[in-house]
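Researcher: Watch the backbone:
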Amino acid sequence: MAQVHTLPVVVDAQTQPTIRNITTTDLLDALSKGLQDFSAMPSHALFLCLIYPVIGALLFATTFGLNIVPLLYPLATGFALAGPFAAIGLYEMSRRREAGQPVSFGHLYLSHTRSRFGIAALGLVLLAIFLIWLGVARQIYVANFGYAVPDTLMDFARAVLFTPAGWTMIVVGNVVGFLFAVVVLTISVVSFPMLIDRDVSVGTAVLTSVRAVMVNPINMSVWGLIVAGLLFLGSLPLFLGLVIVLPVLGHATWHLYRRVVEQGPAASHEVHPARPRNYAADFPVALFYSWREKE
């Protein structure tokens, strides 16, 4: 029977791995390998990440439907705060490809159970941070414009771009949003990949992530800027660019984790007989193979 963590937040000092010093070359190498993973597994990554532009478009439509135009930007930027959790399937795909194991649609969902509780717990933390960010962003808007809601997006854009209150909101909002992003980066940059790779608690994974940022503050900051820049470019127009940006960043994060954290005892993962990998043209058929593997 698989072992289950009854206290998933306990930190075990004996399981703390060694953190490596990384360089800008390591960051570029992680991005390069992320792109290679995406190229090698396009049918799976494309299917997964088509979900995100749809969600983005729904957020866009919901915002106008509920007449909460001021929260459109916080929703779009805050959506990235959940990115580390949303990419867990991509980490698993990269792990399996690196280990020479078969990869299928079914592997977007973790097949080993020991990590699920920890991943879910940390995912709830990121969800809480996202909701807090929306509440803070709302208060920043109210502090500058009151409770009045603009009738159209153009009215809101004019108020933000051409009034002192709008300039204040832009500066304060981006500074506060940056602080939220730093917190998420610090606690999650390697914690989710580590929970997939090893049988550790949430506390151990988060502490390892914090240590990784403390040991490499400059290069981790550069990584955060790379992620933010690519997400911004991917959101134009209407989040369609995220079809490519999200899977590449997800795969790249796995390889960054492998660069930063010394390799140690991995979690016990199942191994299936190797099959020829699937390509985009094989996408409908790949679905049937994946479900058969899970049986």
Summary: The longest helix spans residues 116-145. Residues 289 and 295 are 10 Å apart (CA to CA). The two ends are 17 Å apart (CA to CA). Residues 18-101+113-262 form one domain.
